[in-house]
Design goal:
The protein is an alpha+beta fold. The protein contains eleven helices and 18 strands. The structure holds manganese (II) ion.
Length: 353
């Protein structure tokens, strides 16, 4: 990873780069904690952290020199110390991951010229190695197993919060990383909220129940959504579910290497055209997923990104009708030359509980 990154640094005419995005820190160094930074140079690499993490950093990043910035007194001075040691005159910083206070401190305390850059590491993260794909595969298996377990808990009278907590528990029992993102578990009319937060609402007969969740394995995340019905679905629910299912399938069928991402979006809306429901769709129908839950590439009508083999993306069109409810089906796939491999294997047909 570091070798490839150094090539990027050379292209950008910098001799050192301060990494502050936690996922980029992990990608380049393997470090799993928080509040930690890297200084990458052509010769040596540094982990800049504090006493909570010095032992962990030494274990997880054996090729890095560990600096406890508190020993030097100030984070920005620690950066200057390492940059001077490596004789750096131009130091790249991650413009999207430095706050104003840090920037001012770095400007005052670092002798090297600061060069704000964006997405240097993120670009490298788009295409996954076989090891990364294996971790994502395991994360998807965990979420499939957790989904299978939660189905028997979805009953009239249980609250969204209770269901969300149980799903979290099953994900961890099935082997998910301890730290991961919160799930979306919503029901009834609330299913039209794209990123609804689980509430005290109780599940009622006839409700759509939408769950958008995932696991982590060795840092790599899974992201999937299923929408089920409690009891029998009425005709409108069946109709909308069927349109959504077709929309997602069409989008999955469109995925392959060397296709422009917006083509996947246009494939996803075909099933909605002339149904009256197109106006209720959301244009962000997928995204990359890896160490971050939402990462490059983002898939929508304006995405000119060329999909490439071994990228991992989600496909998640949806129909959201305010005041009525919504349906989303989301799967995680690996892009291949001919199409894609679906990593999330839970059934996509309408489940009536
Ligand atoms: Mn997603």
């Amino acid at each position: 990873m570091i070798k490839k990154f150094i090539k990027e640094m050379k292209k950008n005419n910098i001799e050192g780069m301060l990494i502050s995005n936690p996922q980029n820190v992990r990608y380049l160094s393997g470090f799993k904690g928080d509040d930690t930074y890297l200084l990458i140079t052509f010769q040596s690499n540094y982990v800049i952290t504090d006493a909570r993490y010095t032992e962990q950093a030494a274990q997880e990043c054996p090729d890095f020199e560990v600096i406890d910035w508190r020993d030097i007194g100030k984070f920005s001075r620690a950066v200057d110390y390492a940059a001077k040691k490596e004789d750096i005159s131009k130091l790249g910083i991650e413009a999207e991951f430095i706050n104003y206070r840090q920037f001012i401190d770095l400007k005052n305390d670092v002798k090297a010229k600061l060069v704000p850059l964006t997405k240097l590491v993120e670009k490298l993260r788009i295409i996954k190695t076989p090891e990364e794909i294996e971790c994502a595969r395991k994360a998807c298996d965990i979420s499939d197993r957790a989904f299978n377990r939660i189905l028997s808990d979805i009953k009239i009278g249980i609250t969204e919060k209770e269901l969300s907590a149980k799903l979290q528990y099953y994900l961890k029992l099935e082997g998910s990383d301890a730290r991961r993102y919160e799930n979306i578990f919503i029901s009834g009319k609330r299913t039209s909220l794209l990123h609804g937060i689980p509430s005290d609402k109780k599940v009622e007969y006839g409700d759509f129940v939408l769950m958008d969740f995932g696991a982590g394995y060795n840092g790599y995340l899974s992201d999937m959504t299923r929408t089920v019905v409690v009891g029998k679905a009425d005709d409108k629910k069946k109709e909308i579910y069927e349109i959504e299912r077709k929309s997602e399938q069409d989008a999955i069928n469109a995925v392959k290497s060397k296709i422009i991402a917006k083509e996947v979006y246009y494939a996803s809306i075909k099933a909605m055209e002339n149904t009256g429901y197109l106006e209720y769709h959301y244009s962000g129908i997928g995204h990359g997923v890896g160490l971050a839950i939402h990462e490059e590439p983002f898939i929508g009508p304006k995405s000119e990104h060329l999909l490439e083999k071994n990228s991992i993306i989600t496909i998640e069109p949806g129909i959201y009708i305010p005041g009525w409810g919504g349906v989303r089906i989301e799967d995680q796939v690996v892009v291949t030359d001919e199409g894609c491999e679906i990593l999330t294997k839970s059934p996509r047909n309408l489940i009536e509980l």
